[in-house]
Queue: 2 jobs
Job 1
Amino acid sequence: MAKNTQSLYEKYIIGNYGVAPLTLVRGKGRRVWDDKGKRYLDFCSGIAVNSLGVAHPAWVKSVSAQAKLLAHASNLFRNEPQAALAKTFVDMMGVAGAKMFFCNSGTEANEALIKLARLYGMKKAGGKEGKIFKIVCAENAFHGRTFGSMAATPQKKIQHGFAPQLKGFSFGKFNDLKSFEKLVDKDTAAVLVEPVQGESGVTPATAEFLKGLRKLCDKKKILFMLDEIQCGIARSGTLLACQQSGIVPDAVSLAKGLGGGFPIGAIWVRAPYTDLLQPGMHGTTFGGNPLACAAGLAVLETIKAEDLLANVKDISKHLIRKLTAVKKEFPALVKEVRGLGLMIGIGLAKETAPVIAALRAQGLLVAGAGNHTIRFLPALNVTKAECDEAICMLKKALDSLSQ
Ligand SMILES: Cc1ncc(COP(=O)(O)O)c(C=O)c1O
């Protein structure tokens, strides 16, 4: 492999990412190594993607076996892994009659939800298009970078340069039911929110908010759609984060952790909305590709086999306790610890970039969220010892920044 990756990036890769000055070459479990041989503890997990860590044996076995058999088939034909993954997820959700559609990324999963809402609106309007089409989303949401998802993401830094935005989106205050109630009108087809807002700073929705939205959607006969792209697939300590509020949404978007490192997106839709998408209305060449679905199956089977839900809950308590102690120790730097399961935000009194760099220097990789939050997103099978190591590096980094 080329050793001059940095110069090749500068010459050949479009500069739309603020990429860190290191090149990752391999990993094992919760560890990754750069091209200079430096080892890192990975609490970024490819932004909540490597849910089983790197190169988990069950994941490698499933993906390698499928690669030898059939990597791609297209949706002109059935393939076994797609059927098996859909059944496994639907069974784990335990809602009879629900179905899946597979795609390749988070934003694409949200595009499918947005199209589902439009089809629902058309049906509700007696077959008339463009009458009932609005979607109420939340302030500070992040749903992705394509035109539908971007329009649902009311952030200047995401939308700037791409006007005009797709019509029909309005934004209520997150965790403020009344502001959503005010926005739902006769033209509204759906509500779409993240049960834990991720990119804007790791803010969990309250159970009252999600329950209230469920009631509102039932009352107004509109779809209740959730974006669980970051918080779903066991990251919160339950298969979906919304389950902790005791509600069942009408449709959910998934991606990230579902593939455990292989690109995949999906929507889960409950009956009777499973028939809205009819043949020819939506599609993608790669969606439900056998290789991606084999990766997804390995993730779901391993979550069950290794009881990772229990691990997430247990480790989350440990980590939050330790981080709360760090907050007490560094009150001028650490303002808040918040989150759910292994999606934990550490609210800082200063910009994240120097903290992330100081952590990297210590050997810990984390992700930022907004301007003042860093995210701990370790693999679902992370150990207490690894968390203690991360805490130790965090303290050293904060110490170095306090001087
Ligand atoms: C909640 C949420 N929705 C959607 C997306 C977009 O997913 P992708 O980057 O795979 O398009 C993300 C990505 O960070 C996300 O966190």
Job 2
Amino acid sequence: MRAIDNQFEYWDSVSSSKTFTHPVDIDRFHSVVSPQANILDFGCGYGRTCEELYRFGFQNIVGVDSSQMMIERGHKEYPHLNLQTLESNNIPYDSNIFDAIILFAVLTCIPTD
Ligand SMILES: C[S@@+](CC[C@H](N)C(=O)[O-])C[C@H]1O[C@@H](n2cnc3c(N)ncnc32)[C@H](O)[C@@H]1O
């Protein structure tokens, strides 16, 4: 595996030091997604976007990330959130259960197919 493809180790190694700040346009999101919607935040990091949505009133949010350390941090900072480590590249949910799926600053971290 090339170093650039070794994302898992990298994100684990920075899980306690990174602060993600890319602004979330919650009003815009809210204009197209209802607060009762089932939302998947794919590549949620430590869950800060899930937390913003939760604080805004969204009720059904699942965050998943391939970095176990990011998810562990999320469990500490936001114990009320449903954050889970992805065990493989397959999303462990049926294809039709989410109304909205967010990938926030994730595809920019996946350099190859
Ligand atoms: C820049 S961070 C963004 C975190 C979060 N979306 C946010 O904006 O706060 C990118 C995240 O994508 C995750 N990630 C990278 N490749 C992934 C993959 N193949 N599957 C799931 N998550 C991945 C990383 O572990 C990292 O937490």
